[in-house]
DNA sequence: GAATCTATATCGTGC
DNA sequence: GCACGATGTAGATTC
């Protein structure tokens, strides 16, 4: 079937023979959607067993396998891109999807297949903004939002204890370490900053300051921050949303 | 259409009128799958714009919205469960999915709808094992895997600075803090343990030990661990996989 | 390939 | 509802 430039096919209540030839012809080439009752077994980093039930199965041309039930954003089982997908012409028909690192395998036993569809899909353009990196950019363009006299030096500054979002100097020449969070900062953000802070304090002669930049932080995060001698600067997303 | 106990419906190349009545009747009741060219705009914690392109749209009865392209395990855009989904009978037909906290909205402009399917789905049983909690259970049942004389006291021990996986006493009566990781431990695991360690050392008179239990840890994690005076115990997943 | 961090993370739990 | 940690996290980036 063809509409505009998109070719797609639909099989309703297909026989096993139809399913097998349909799938073997189309996997890795088209976006395949199967609605069927199935059992699913997963074994790898963890293990899972799913009893027979109707589910939605998606096979992407890049090797991704996604199995959904009727609830949640997260799939019941999955395999990421690069997975080796095989259709086993057994009774019942079986889809085996495995990858090497980590070694993981999903087996899908297809019981009743209600429909299968397949389509050639070319991806469109996608632009996203408002991520952490955008905030770091805003700081570099508006260093005074940290404080008067702040001079950004390096972003993604590498240390053995992790990458520091931004390092710079204050007007007194102190080393300044900045960790940015795009949403309310939690304990882990403070720990992360403290890890960098300790490392820089040990390896640099200069005085060091650690600053957490976020729209807000939790009560416990604030307590810990103060106890550790670190600083907080509120990032008002409204104020700098013009970029 | 009915096969066994599963009722499902398929519309091929539906008209706008058909799409509208089909969707309004079925959202929040059935698992709906749409394959269509569409534009997608998202605005909330971040923002995104996706140009017109064929995509797979899933509307779950719990309010979940998932939009997939032909690559990746992760959807292009989404809304989690609890989202308010509306079908707007405009030209073009539009799906608006919004939630309050955080305030986020997705607008999907449907251009050409190739097919829509819908099905009543009751979820099956699902059992998973091999998660962190299973390792903690194993330790509690085999305390000697920590060391001779170790006595587990409390799991999920609450502190202002986070929940400690397991606390106990060693044979000398020292307080022992245990952080468990199911895969190779990284810097953040060491920071996490250290946060708990500092807190307990400050609030308890007793001597305190912090132990990281994991199958392995990265080089830098090991360095930091040693520097902070914390300990590591290897958890051999093979050895205790019998539970 | 290993290590680290971000994510519109999502999800579960405890308060 | 908030805070916090786990996730079979996935995905991007750097080394």
TrEMBL record, chains A, B:
One of its GO terms (molecular function) is DNA binding. CDD domains: NucS-like. Its main location: cytoplasm. SUPFAM superfamilies: Restriction endonuclease-like (SSF52980). InterPro entries: Endonuclease_NucS, NucS_C, NucS_N, NucS_N_sf, Restrct_endonuc-II-like, tRNA_endonuc-like_dom_sf. It is found in: Cytoplasm. Residues 29-123 form the Endonuclease NucS N-terminal PH-like domain. GO terms for cellular component: cytoplasm. Keywords: Cytoplasm, DNA-binding, Endonuclease, Hydrolase, Nuclease. Its EC number is 3.1.-.-. It holds the Pfam family NucS_N. It comes from the Archaea. The keyword Methyltransferase does not apply. The keyword NAD does not apply. Signal peptide: none annotated. Residues 132-236 form the Endonuclease NucS C-terminal domain. Belongs to the NucS endonuclease family. HAMAP family: NucS. Cleaves both 3' and 5' ssDNA extremities of branched DNA structures. This is Endonuclease NucS. It comes from Saccharolobus islandicus (strain M.16.4 / Kamchatka #3).
């Amino acid at each position: 079937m063809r509409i505009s430039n998109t070719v797609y096919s639909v099989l309703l209540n297909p026989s096993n023979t139809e399913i097998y030839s349909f799938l073997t012809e189309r996997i890795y080439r088209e976006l395949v959607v199967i609605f069927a009752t199935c059992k699913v077994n997963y074994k790898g980093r963890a293990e899972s067993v799913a009893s027979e039930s109707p589910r939605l199965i998606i096979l992407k041309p890049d090797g991704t396998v996604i199995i959904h039930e009727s609830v949640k954003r997260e799939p019941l089982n999955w395999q990421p891109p690069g997975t080796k997908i095989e259709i086993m012409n057994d009774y019942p028909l079986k889809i085996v999807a495995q990858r090497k690192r980590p070694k993981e395998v999903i087996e899908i036993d297809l019981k009743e297949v209600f429909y299968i569809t397949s389509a050639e899909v070319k991806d469109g353009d996608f632009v996203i903004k408002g991520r952490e990196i955008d905030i770091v950019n805003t700081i570099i363009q508006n260093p005074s939002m940290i404080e008067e006299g702040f001079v950004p030096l390096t972003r993604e500054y590498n240390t053995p204890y992790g990458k520091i979002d931004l390092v710079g100097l204050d007007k007194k020449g102190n080393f300044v370490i900045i960790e940015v969070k795009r949403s309310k900062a939690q304990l882990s953000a403070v720990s992360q900053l403290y890890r960098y802070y300790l490392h820089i304090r040990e390896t640099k002669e200069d005085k060091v300051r650690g600053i957490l930049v976020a729209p807000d932080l939790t009560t416990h995060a604030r307590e810990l921050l103060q106890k550790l001698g670190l600083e907080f600067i509120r990032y008002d997303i409204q104020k700098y949303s013009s970029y």
